[in-house]
Fold this protein.
Amino acid sequence: MIETIEGKGVNRCNVSCDECGRTETLTCDYIRSPGNVWNPNVGQVRKKIIGQNWQVLKGSEICPACSAKRKATKVVKNTDVGAAESEPSKAQKRDILQLLQDCYDVEAGRYNGADTDDVIAETLGVRPAWVSALREEFFGPDGGNEDMQGLLEELVSFRQQLAEVRQRLADHASRVAELDQGAKEHEARLKRIIGALSPRIVKRVG
Ligand SMILES: [Zn+2]
């Protein structure tokens, strides 16, 4: 529950857990509602608390502790189901195949977007192994997904660019060495010339 804190210049509200009643105070914006009533910006408040591991379920705010408890019970239930049934029911099979139809690209031999066997399994609340088996049998190999393919292509492109830059650096390095060598040779010649000249100059001056 999100509650207004009265008072001018107090941009804060109270958020309490709808299960255990634990309350936290946080800063938030206020939005003017009809009748010149100012209410906390619920969207902003929910975003903040979700960032702090709260859960928003059917319009209720659930604190991290209660949310963890809920998840633990759910996991236990899921494992029970998994242990009891090693085969998907006909309905589950249909659900899995239906979703694979939407999410798997048979021609490319991979999932679309960021989907994986695990994502499908989690979406439907079924065992990932069932999804893998049906995917292998009716669709294709576990060739990653579109996002992974995209990242892989980017990686290859980065590596190519890196190799090019390295080559250019190496070219520059050898050019630097050549110029350095040239400068040294010129310096040596100049010294020899000056060395050859000096005695005569010295004589003439003397
Ligand atoms: Zn709670």
Observations:
- Residues 86-144 form a domain with the Arc Repressor Mutant, subunit A fold (CATH 1.10.10).
